[in-house]
Amino acid sequence: MEHQTHGYTFAADPLRPGDDCARICTLHRPAAGRPVQPIVFGTPHSGRCYPEDFVRHAALPLQDLRRSEDFFVDHLFSVAPEAGCWQLVAHRPRAWLDLNRAPDELDPEMFDAPPPGKVRITPRVSAGLGVIPRLVAEGMEIYGQPLSWSEAEERLRTGYIPYHERLRRLLLHLRDHHGQAVLIDCHSMPASAARAMTPLGGRRPHIILGDRNGTSCSSLLTDVLEQLFHAAGLRVSRNRVYAGGYITDHYGTSGLGMHAIQIEINRELYMDENRLVPSSGFEDLKRIITDIIHALPARIARLWGGLPIAAE
């Protein structure tokens, strides 16, 4: 189901009416009266607002463009404000702009003119998954002809910079007020990815925690999240094969009071990947995540001295 508004095709879903297409992202603040926690849940790939020009000129139908989305992940973590935490939800789709990449991770061969300045051809760029992606997640080409560099520059200016400025300011504000800040970057992975990484005869993971191999956050945060997911009956892996992307690496400076960790959720837990709709497991998984979010602040309170945090 979809509808059009404000120059965007909104890929609607049955879990939330309306749309947020007029904004790049929405920051959901801690609920009134709740003790404020210095914990931010981000969903940079949850966007479902597709610019109509982008859809019209893409070489793929909307259904295929959507395969790069982290489907419904913003809904799974939507209880965060009720627990006194923050939630930053992106509205533009990953196929249009990947917020979990460095701004210079660009493939110059994609554009009608070379990007000015230095670009970095990382393995992600070579795989077609730079900050302006060339492919959707399943390896299909998004464009049938070179993309205008002016269009790519506009996406970076109006989409990438505002999202990261808002996230950066929020984390610095929380660190300055509470001594530490925690970013939990929330993603989903295709079931096929989990199957591919599972040894023959092994059991594929439900959850992958990525802390850049122990460098982007306190081990307390990773340990507690692993314990909470495991206690809920889910299989958890660390850093294999998702150790965290640009966001985890860039904002995870635990020595400076900023902790970042990535969570990847196996989509087979909660959705039908062929029809792109929630499955019967969605509500069960949301209850698990809701319980984990409510339990987390007390379990990691040692990061900020174990003291109660007053409402801001």
Note down, in words, how this protein is organized.
By secondary structure, the chain is an alpha/beta fold. Helix content is 29%, strand content 17%. A seven-stranded mixed sheet has the order 3-6-4-7-10-8-9. Strands 1-2-5 form a three-stranded antiparallel sheet. β1 and β2 form a beta hairpin.
Run of helices and strands: EEEEEHHHEHHEHEHEHEEEH
Strand order of the largest sheet: 3-6-4-7-10-8-9
The biggest sheet amounts to: 7 strands, mixed
Name the beta content range. 15-25%
What is the number of E strands? 12
Q: Determine the number of helices (DSSP H or I, runs of at least 4 residues).
A: 9
Helix/strand class: alpha/beta
Mean pLDDT: 92
List keywords for this structure.
alpha/beta; 312 residues; single chain; globular; 7-stranded mixed β-sheet
Question: How do you describe this structure in short?
Answer:
29% of the residues lie in helices and 17% in strands. It has 312 residues and is of the alpha/beta class.
List the topology elements.
Layout: E1 3-5, E2 8-10, E3 25-28, E4 39-43, E5 49-51, H1 52-57, H2 62-65, H3 73-76, E6 86-90, H4 123-126, H5 149-178, E7 181-189, H6 191-196, E8 207-210, H7 219-231, E9 236-238, H8 246-251, E10 258-266, E11 271-272, E12 277-278, H9 282-299
Parallel strand pairs: 4-6, 4-7, 7-10, 8-9
Antiparallel strand pairs: 1-2, 2-5, 3-6, 8-10, 11-12
Helix pairs in contact: 7-9
